[in-house]
Amino acid sequence: MADTPTFVRDRLAAIEAAGLLRQPPTIEATGPVTGRVGGRDATLFCGNDYLALRTDPRIAQAAADAAEAHGGGAGSSRLIAGSLAVHEELEAEIADWLGTAAALVFPSGYQANLAMLQALAGPDDQIVSDALNHASLIDGCRLSRATVAVVPHKDRRAAERALSDGAFAERFLVGEGLYSMDGDRGKVKDWMWAVHNTGAHLLVDEAHALGVLGPAGAGVAAERGAGHLPLARVGTFGKALGAAGAAIATDAATRDLLVNAGRTYIFTTGLAPAAAGAALAGIRIARSAEGDERRARLAGHARRIWNGLLDAGWQVPGDEDTPIKPAIVGPPEEAMALHHRLLEAGLYAMAIRPPTVPEGTCRIRITLSAAHSDDDIDRLLGAMGSPDTVPRP
């Protein structure tokens, strides 16, 4: 076996010296919001299982049924032999849910965002991108080879100014329905006006909003009455829907363009049948009266955490009713120290550090589930304490 190159060791050492070295923890699930972390029992406040569907027996059964019917994998890229009936059923369900003419399924949200931007925008075009957009959107902008203008977070005037340049063949404005690190909604109505005033096209990533916000969980664009306006919306199945994979909801012709030009669609094996079956079951629960009940419980938890953290003196960005609640700590060492204090109390919430968030804004990112109890939330608020009680390493 070859020795590790010196540059690898040097780069790892630099990351560690900055207090930013990360390793994925192994979680042994013991319930919808409980697990063993490093041998310690803990209540989990760090996942994206917002509607508590991931461990629902109906999701597991739907996955097993799809695998039995279609096999363990798709067996091919979809343009060759990997487009299965369960994919088409899932795409029809998504289009009906989001009120679009068509949808296209991908193995992951990252791949969906790459395809959306790379296939729709090109070297003669412009993309105006919100400063807090997800890494997958940033990488999609790069792959498109379009001219990219990054504008301050949710700044409509800056977006309109950037989009007013008439030198481009096509112009796109891209943002998120719910921002994953700050827990705030994208200003979809402002974006609607920006694209209306400039003739641009709106693209919205609803990854964290799908199933959680809007009528029947259809996302922020639907919540703001703009479901018809975006040229494309991306939604993921691995968060509120308890499965895996993603889709782009759009019109039929744009779907055809994505099929023929989206590299992450063309050159990858289709979504595993089990994941597609699980996603179908998750969507049907999310769209039902039961889904409404789970969303109401989730929003109630969010408001309790929001008010409790603010009362304790924490800076908490975002919106009151969303399930992502970041408590800003500041230095990475202090964020990690608070993370370890919570874990010692049997509560697992992740410390988020650069490059995921800007320097100086390290945070404990609390994410909520409909399966959390009032007692769970009370214990978390008690263990968080106030900013003055954060351990100083």
Q: Biggest sheet, open or closed, and with what strands and sense?
A: 7 strands, mixed
Strand order of the largest sheet: 4-10-9-8-7-5-6
Instruction: Provide the CATH superfamily of the largest domain.
Output: Type I PLP-dependent aspartate aminotransferase-like (Major domain)
Mean pLDDT: 96
Q: State the shape.
A: globular
CATH architecture designation of the largest domain: 3-Layer(aba) Sandwich
Per DSSP, what share of the residues sits in E-state strands of 2 or more residues? 15-25%
Q: State the name of the first-level CATH class of the largest domain.
A: Alpha Beta
Give the helix proportion (percent range).
40-55%
Total domain count: 2
Strand tally: 14
Please explain how this structure is put together.
- The protein has 393 residues and is an alpha/beta fold.
- The protein folds into 2 domains: 18-47 and 289-389, Aspartate Aminotransferase, domain 1 (Alpha-Beta Complex); 57-286, Aspartate Aminotransferase, domain 2 (3-Layer(aba) Sandwich).
- The protein has helices at 6-17, 57-70, 78-82, 85-98, 109-120, 135-144, 156-163, 188-198, 220-223, 252-261, 263-266, 273-286, 289-311, 332-344, 374-384; strands at 27-31, 34-37, 40-44, 102-106, 126-130, 147-151, 171-176, 201-205, 232-236, 246-250, 324-330, 347-348, 350-352, 362-367.
- A 7-stranded mixed beta sheet has the order 4-10-9-8-7-5-6, with helices on both faces. A 4-stranded mixed beta sheet has the order 1-2-3-12.
- The longest helix has 23 residues, at 289-311.
- The mean pLDDT is 96.
